[in-house]
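Quarterly update, task 2.4: manganese (II) ion-bound model.
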Amino acid sequence: MTTKIAVIGGDGTGPEVTAEALKVLKAVSQLEGFDYTLHDFDFGGERYLRTGEILPEGAVQELSEIDAIFLGAVGHPDVAPGILEKGLLLELRFQLDQYINLRPVKLYPGVETPLAGKGTDDIDFVVVRENTEDLYCGVGGFMKKGTADEVASQTALYSRKGCERCLRWAFEFTQRRNNPKGKMLTLVAKTNVLTYGHDLWWRTFEEVAQDYPDVKADYNHVDACCMWMVKNPEYYDVIVTTNMFGDIITDLGAMIQGGMGVAAGGNINPDPGGTSMFEPMGGSAPKYTGRNVINPIAAIAAMQMLIEHAGHTRAAERVLSAIQKVTGEKMKSQAAGQMGYGTSEVGDLVCESLS
Ligand code: IPM
Ligand code: MN
């Protein structure tokens, strides 16, 4: 079966890191013998400034017929912050019902973590973030806007269906991950304060857990989770959490795994025929554009997730080992301009390390 992949290189350094990810995809597809087709979309800041539209008419429909999307980066210095993020990234997550945001927090060999005394065995867990509800649903409003009496509200919405489908997927993912240290799913929420919304999450979690007796069902409040992620990251196997908390703790996760240069994520619609989207976590880093200094490892890791999602398990394992070889044996640092190699050389090194 041929996998149809949409490519949105996006803004700033997005296209540069995307090119390296595509290079690795091409090399591994030749070694493993699988087929794919690429479909380019020029969405992002440049197009928005030119045409005034972020996602043109019919784009979502077109993307929904594709197997997977690779997204380089969005964010343009001449476009107010939030416009492209909302108009492209969040819009695609919602419209394509990508209800899982999957964020592996994995320290690769040779990568520096700010956590003293922690190594690759200690920092290796996955965050499953609900990706369509919560404070992200855009429900709220103003009263007496712009006056001294102004009131603003922003409502978190949680549906039974929304939390149940996310929790079930997280339990099944924990089973598949099959951690030799023991299968454990930690719900991260704030049940002591959010006594309605997170009560729904908690009750649903307890109920769904009955169907997965081989997975230890565990719970942390979100503030304690931030503490444990820094103090004892080896405690975690899989974390499942709400959209807003997931947003926050995954940036903490990205830092302990060595920064935005290495962190990748997937926006997954697990339903049959669903379209999922994979992206490096770093932004468009406009100041590094065109200088061949940006780190492509996160983009290559996002491609690795896409390949795995497309069912090419062996190819995905091969890309993962190649990344680990390059970070462990070649690169001097994961910071832009300090890698010891240029962007395209890092891509070449990963390709060479595939065999
Ligand atoms: C992320 C990002 C987005 C989010 C922004 C860009 C809207 O921070 O993918 O984590 O908040 O989800
Ligand atoms: Mn975020």
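Highlight for this quarter: The chain is about 40% helix and 20% strand.
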